[in-house]
Amino acid sequence: MRPKAKRTIIAAVLAGALVGVLLSIFGGEFQRRLVFDSWQNWAPRSDTSDQVVVVMIDDASVEAKGQWPWRRTDVAALLENIAIAEPAVIGIDIYFTEPDRLRPQNFAELYTEDALDEATRAKILTLPYGDQYLASVIETAPTVMPWVTTNSGGRSLSELTFEAVEGEPPVGIARAERMLTSIPLLDDVALAKGVVVGPPDSDGIVRRVPLSVMAGDTVTPGFAVQLANIASGGGSLRWTEEGLIGAGKIVPSDPTANLEFKMSTGWEEDVITALDVLNGNVDVEEMHGKVVLLGFGATGTTDIVATPVSSETQGTLVQAQAVDAILNGHWLARPSWAQWLEIAFALALVAMLIVAGIGFAKWLVFAAIGVGALLPIGSFIAYDSAGLLIDPARPIVIALCAGIALVLVRYALTFAELVEKRIVTAEQEKENESARKLQLTMVPSAARLAKLGTRTEIGAVLEPAKSVGGDFYDAMELEGNRLAFLVGDVSGKGLRAALFMALSKSVSKNNLLRSGDDLGAAVRQVNTELMAEEDEEMDLTLLVGIIDCSTGMIEMVNAGHEDPMLVRPDGSIEVVKMTGGLRLRTLDEFPYEVEKLQMKPGESLVIVTDGATDAMNVKGDRFGLDRVLEALKDSAQSSAPERVRHIAGKVRAFERGMDPADDLTILVLRYLGKDAAASKSN
Q1: Phi-psi region of 585 (alpha: psi -120 to 50; beta: other; left: phi over 0)
Q2: Which of 345, 347, 398 is nearest to 28 (CA)?
Q3: Distance (Å, rounded) from C-alpha 335 to C-alpha 340?
Q4: Euclidean distance between CA atoms 682 and 680, whole angstroms
Q5: Residues 337-359: tens digit of each pLDDT
Q6: What is the CATH number of domain 432-681?
Q7: Which residue of 118, 329, 511, 599 is 20 to 30 Å from 492, comparing CA positions?
Q8: Domain boundaries, the chain
Q9: C-alpha angle 611/613/615, rounded to 5°?
Q10: Residues 240, 176: Cα–Cα separation, whole Å
Q11: Would you tell me the crossing angle of helices 3-26 and 336-357 to the nearest 10 degrees?
């Protein structure tokens, strides 16, 4: 390879790699989500926790106790029954943003001063009510109340008492201007508070929960880590460079102070219904010493979120899984060295492509492909076995762009060489083009086809795969208001096939014109005459037919050709299964038989060569019979010439610049019936 070509290849590969770097920077978050969500779907947590219990106010509970919101005394009774089991901590994943509707003040306001004297009113206002009862239970039980960050509504930060998290959190930590909480009477008496959710991911999928949120100048803890920390014995929470110290361990964090963890799809099955807790139908051992989360999950709840493993999940179950992940180490972490490892793989792959591209070790291309294929496997193993998030997409994208650049530059260099060769062979190309034009003049033109038949319409196209080829078609009028048509396909391509095609077409036409009424005999005679030729390697398929234009009756002989297709006016299509016979020049004196088909006005007979069904795209997919049928459906109401052009266009669009696999020939015969003149004029 010339030194200039080597320098061009190196520059192109490096430029491609730079494009890949830019793509991985701008699309990094999207590609990582795509990869890591796939890992979650393929290998979700298959087990639930024996340390975390979820009590849910479900449909059965609402049906028995009445619609939500319940009386605060009922909620207090539920919470009290949970507390009797002596759980390690109770997380109340419910917001009580309004005072109890049944409080004495609301009752007293229903009556005027005339209906309710002052003494009685004052007595009523001193009566205890549900919020007080619920507050007393929250205060005595080890409870954690939820907070949600908000920019409007809720309570100002100056109204709240925060439990500060020590240390410096990640710089990307979410910041809150206000908090949505329960009413102060309930919120302020809880043992602890924690932020349930921070700013969601841009695609709306919940992948993580906050470990901390910056509220003003104070770092406040997340709901899940509060529960896990209290269940593990309490103690202060503190940020370090490794993560958040809490629950007796160092919990890793992403750059936004959030925890990403492995999720499960099986937690719904182990939920305890609130009705069973209220009725005392739950063994206290099920909740004793454990983390209990109380949530609302009846029909109509707004706390439904999408996760990587489920399109609809109760928010309380997400929190429960987060608590369990902290307690048992089921978190996901992206260590700082992961990025450098990804860059190292990218550099190695690009180096392999450069060395292979300049010709020193071409086998390194396959090595690079192998390494690229192993990267996702290694990433999945790291996720599944160690909870590590290593992005295989970054080095793959960089290497892919570099590889594309390598392919393009090698193609350009090869193309430059081909241009030189093209100049040398220009005269030969002109001769081939002349041969192509000569071949196309051997088949009837569209104008000539339009004049044939009194009650028929014919359209046809021939596109050789090379400058010349072996396909052909023809149509001619016979005595008795009959029209003959044929489509043939000579084996092979190029000049040799074209010469044999010319002979075959001439022999076929001559025998049809003098065949009289015996189409089978005509085809048998064609076979006999072609068998006399000395070129034993050449054979062909032939489908020949004669239509009686007065009745629409067709006689056909199929010598190894593709079966024709019948398209009805309503768009339905039938592949006309023909018994047929061997290809011509296969066996002398083969008894080719005539098969009949009755056509009705408006029906079309479509005949194609294997250049249509065997057409291939860049992926190696075949166009196939199904796509031919689909193209016919698209053109159900078209004229014969329009239908031919439509099918040919579909085939070429499918190939998208690929060299044709074979010559393409399509012939469409449409029977118009008695209204032939009107139909043809349309």
Answers
A1: left
A2: 398
A3: 10
A4: 5
A5: 998 998 999 999 999 888 888 87
A6: 3.60.40.10
A7: 511
A8: 3-39+340-423, 52-332, 432-681
A9: 60
A10: 22
A11: 150
